[in-house]
Design goal:
The protein is of the alpha/beta class. The protein is built from 9 helices and 10 strands. It is globular and about 40 Å long. The two termini are about 20 Å apart. About 0% of the residues have low confidence.
């Protein structure tokens, strides 16, 4: 499976790692660490060296309780890092984590390859129209509610069927705009209880029938550290365990804080698959 992402190829024949660069002061795990120029460039260098295929830049925290970010403030944070990283790593795939349609053209003009939208196009009615104008790929995530309230009382009848319907509706909207460079993210931890998250993990391969590759973001999330009664800083081993499970259940991209460990997990998974 290959996707042409703004003139650069994403080959998902072997699963790939998306490395996280948080440019926010308040992300749940590493907020505030990579806001300064020397910090985010050093972070990118580490992710590239360890084997990331994609660098994912985000300027808005989406942890539970967070408020939506102002569009202008978001771009002021994103613009310089995008330009610098595109210049420094001309062959790397760069993803921008945004739910604001006004950023799409700006990102395309700077050579960004992927728009990673946690709202799945539900918070900005112009998002689908905008993304369909460009050659970038689009990560469509599922979320119930907005970050400020999403964990107050998440409820589903059948979570997998509801996610399939959510994605089907949005995929069809994009198809009417002649756009099909879609990657699906089930949104672990976004408007979901621990039980919802594990039910989703166990049945995520049912989303394959939608015909688009699956991205999984499990890295150091509450389904790891709350289950194990630890903190995010201690959740790397649990993250690795869940990453292996989601690979077995057909995920093609792992979005992670810890690239080296995710790359090793994919190498072991690939060897296992080659002999199974």
């Amino acid at each position: 499976m290959q996707i042409n992402c703004n003139h650069q190829l994403l080959d998902l024949g072997i699963p790939k790692v998306m490395g996280i660069i948080n440019l926010t002061p308040n992300s749940f795990f590493d907020g505030g660490k990579y806001q300064k120029e020397d910090a985010y460039l050093e972070r990118a260098e580490k992710l590239v060296r360890e084997g990331a295929a994609i660098l994912d830049l985000g300027a808005a925290s989406t942890k539970p309780g967070s408020k939506l970010v102002d569009k202008q403030d978001e771009w002021e944070i994103l613009e310089k890092p995008i330009k610098q990283l595109r210049t420094r790593y001309p062959e790397m795939l760069i993803s921008v984590d945004t739910y604001n349609a006004t950023q799409v053209k700006k990102c395309a003009d700077q050579g960004v390859n992927i728009i990673n939208d946690i709202s799945g196009g539900s918070w900005d009615e112009q998002m689908f129209t905008e993304i369909a104008k460009y050659e970038m790929a689009y990560v469509m995530m599922h979320i119930q509610g907005q970050p400020e309230i999403m964990q107050e009382n998440p409820s589903y009848g059948n979570i997998l069927e509801e996610l399939k319907e959510y994605f089907k509706i949005r995929i069809e909207k994009l198809r009417t705009l002649n756009f099909d460079k879609i990657i699906l993210d089930p949104g672990f931890g976004f408007g979901k209880t621990l039980d919802h998250n594990f039910e989703l993990l166990a049945g995520i391969n049912r989303l394959e029938s939608l015909g688009h590759p699956i991205l999984a973001g499990l890295s150091r999330k509450s389904m790891v550290f709350r289950t194990l009664d630890i903190g995010p800083n201690e959740a790397l081993n649990g993250t690795t365990a869940l990453n292996m499970l989601v690979l077995i259940n057909s995920a093609k991209i792992l979005r992670v804080h810890d690239v080296k460990e995710a790359v090793e997990t994919i190498e072991l998974f690939s060897r296992y698959k080659a002999n199974s």
